[in-house]
Amino acid sequence: MSRLIQVFNPVHGQRIHRLKINVMGRLLDKKIRTLGVHLDKALIRKVHVANSGAFECRMDLSSLKLGKHEVEFRAIIGHRTERLVVPFYKIEQPEEEQPPQSKEPEDP
Which among 54, 60, 69, 78 is least buried, having the fewest CB atoms inside 10 angstroms? Predict the structure, then answer.
């Protein structure tokens, strides 16, 4: 748990079926201007932090396999790094939300 980074979305252990999500939160130290966002230990984006400490970015989850994943937030503060890891689970889309599949014509 980080004392300086708060994440509002995704929440710890959330089950996500969407292909894209908005990651958002805030930093309690207003001097931090950028934040590294890592997905499964790989840096995917550096995010600009607003004057209020708020940050947000869109994350594409379409290439992830089903199962447990982690979003890690890293902020460099002086000579140390503040980190917060948020695990989540990618699950299958509910049937009513799956994209329509093309229907093959039936043989008479």
Answer: 78
